[in-house]
Structures are given as C-alpha cells and as structure tokens.
Amino acid sequence: MRNWLTTAAAVGALAFAANAHAQETLTIGVMATLEGTYTVLGEDGIRGLEMAMEQAGYEAGGRPIEIIIAATDASPDSAVRAARKLVEQDGVDIVIGPLSGSEGIAIRDYAKTQPQMTFINGSSGAQETTYVTPADNFFRFNMDGAQWSVGLGDYLYEEKGYRNIVTIAEDYSFTYTQVFGLALEFCAAGGEISERFWVPLGTSDFASIIASLPDDVDAIYLGLGGGDAVNFLNQYQQAGGDANLIGGTIMVDQTVLQSRGRAKEALIGTPASGPQGDTWEDENWQAYVAEFQEMYPDRFPSLLATAYYNSANAVINALNAVDGDLSDGHAAFREALATMELEAPNGLITLDDNRQAVGTNFVTEVVEDADGNLVTEVVSIVEGVNQTLGYDPAVFASIGLPSRDIPECRAYE
C-alpha cells in the first residue's frame, strides 16, 4: 500500500493537492474504517476509490478534485465525528462513505441535518439506512446485506442438501441484514436455523461460542469479517472443528482470502454470495481486475474496493453530466445521481425511489486457483435484485426490520 494510506490511518485525514485555484477545486471527503477490526476493509475501499480517481485524472465536470480522508473504526460515533470534521471543519463539497453498517444508519441521520451536502455511501450494507426514513441527500450505489444474500438460501437447500444450520454473526446492523436475507430464502425453501449466535465486533476469543456449537447441524453460517473472521478460523481449527461452513459476504471476501496464514484454507469449498464473483468471465469485470492488479500487484479487489470504486465513479459521472455544477443545493447533481444507470464492473446498477441500489448478486464457492490463490468461483447470477428481495412491498414490510430474532424462520406470503 502506498505511504499516503499509512499516513491516513495514522492521522485520520489526508488531502491530495490539485493543480488549480482553490475556488475552482471540488473537494470530496471520504470516510473509511482505517482503525479497528475492519481496518483491512477500509484500506481496500481506499484503493478502489484511488483507482477511480486516477482513471479520471482527479478531475470531473471540468473541475480538479481534491480528496480528504477521515478514518473511522466501524462505530456510529466515529462515523459521525469523521463526517462532522469533513463537513463542518474541512468544508468539503461532497462526502463518500461510510464503510460499515451501523455507520451508515448514523450518517443517514446526520445527512438530514446537512441538507446542503450530498452523501454517497461507501459500502455500508444495513437495510435500515435507505429502507427506513431515507435521507433525500443520501445515495447508495451498493446493495444492502440482504440483497447480497439472494440466491444463497435456495442454493444451500436445493444443491448442497442442507436442511438445518446455525449462524454465527457479528452483533450489529449489517450482519442482522445479512442473516435476514439468508433466513428468508433458506427457511422459505424448507430449511431450519436452529440457533443464532451473536458476537461483538472485535471479538478475539471465540472459545465459548465454539464450545456451544451443536453437532447435529448440516453447516455453520459465518457472518464475520476482518480480524474477527481470521480469529474465528484460527480458533475453530485449533479446537478440531470440521463442520461444513457457509460464508457471509465479507467472510469470503478477498480481505479474508488474502490474509496471512493457513486458517483461510478451511474456507475452500464454502458456499457464499455477494455483489461480485472473483472468477466471473465478463469482459468488463476482467478488465477491472487486470487494471486493479496493475495498480496494486499481487492483490485481488475486495468487494470494498469495488464498492468504493463504484461510488467514486457515480460521483465522477454525475459531475461530468452537470459540468461540475453544484448550485441550487446540488439539485442537478442529485438528479444525475438518482437517474444514473451505472455500468459497474460487477454489473448494472440503478437506484430505486429511496436512492438504493438495484443490482446483480453472485452465488459462489471458494476455490483455489491455478496460482494457489483463494477466489470465489461463480455458481449462479441473480440480476435486478431490489431491496424488497422480490417480495410484494406490503408483505416485506410486515416481516419487520432485521434484528437478532427477525425474521422468524418460516415462509412469508
């Protein structure tokens, strides 16, 4: 990683200089988790953003772009502090971020207090962020965690033959949303979730959870990410665990698959789902991967890199469409965002009436490629996934919001 990212993680903010007069420069504030258990996710998000900006030459709509980065630690409070610094102290024109689920809900609420500012989500995936009382000035070009689960429940039941599973997931809004999507589909197919375990973000000791896992289940779903994912894999193998595993989206992301050590090898053969499939043969995806690896040798883009890349490109495209005009409360710029059809490397993205992404989801399994790298191999693709997961909106609303206990494991009609 380049030295500037290390500096950003250390001091919390960094600006790219643009060769233009200050009054002509457009300043974009960026929030990413550069502290805490999700640091590696935030670092890759910044890689994706940097790649989009370099492709654009740090210019859009005829205006040079300056980037200011503010670090968060995945907590709502840290996200709001970062946003306040960017908006109220640094005076940025646009904000991209945040990365993590509960951060997103907090920034949605903060956005309502700053109607003059436009916020473009980084990668946070809690359902509530855009589904409940959305902010008019908050746009999300990535699907939420439940959308990222579409296709997986049916695959587990129909193809893997799983009938009874347990889940282990981090105890916060994003993974509530992930398990929500999985449970709706798996339980509707006839599957059972016999127990749901929840652990705090930043858990270092999984011994009690591992000891509590039942033996009479077909598989264990792991809704963990970053340091939590690696810690669990190490401790589970040390305890002699050998159950079938199911991956939450960030459990099988490249931020885990490229981690050091051999614990990740336990994920080979693990089914999962999410907004990208590493082996997808689509030429736009392959070109994106090739350019990412040219810029960052020996790395494969994680879903965080792709999400921040897409969000940055949405900003660049909208600015180009309005010739950099942010007058009248960003009216033309926001209209360009809202009506955009983003040809992203991981498929077409459009926004619904809540400014929430409708996109493509990939069901995958982890495999070892010819070079010995772990990658997600595409099993099937589901296009046009909306936030109500294909349910009638009234039926979907009746289910309730994702939580430790919602949804119930049953069919909804």
Describe this structure in words.
This protein has 413 residues and is of the alpha/beta class. The protein folds into 2 domains: 3-145 and 283-358, Rossmann fold (3-Layer(aba) Sandwich), CATH 3.40.50; 147-280 and 360-399, Rossmann fold (3-Layer(aba) Sandwich), CATH 3.40.50. The chain contains 14 helices and 15 strands. The strands form 3 sheets. It has a 6-stranded mixed β-sheet with strand order 2-3-1-4-5-6, sandwiched between helices. α2 packs parallel to α12 and α6 crosses α7. The longest helix has 19 residues, at 303-321. The chain is globular.
Quick synopsis:
By secondary structure, this protein is an alpha/beta fold. The chain is 37% helix and 21% strand. The protein is globular and about 65 Å long.
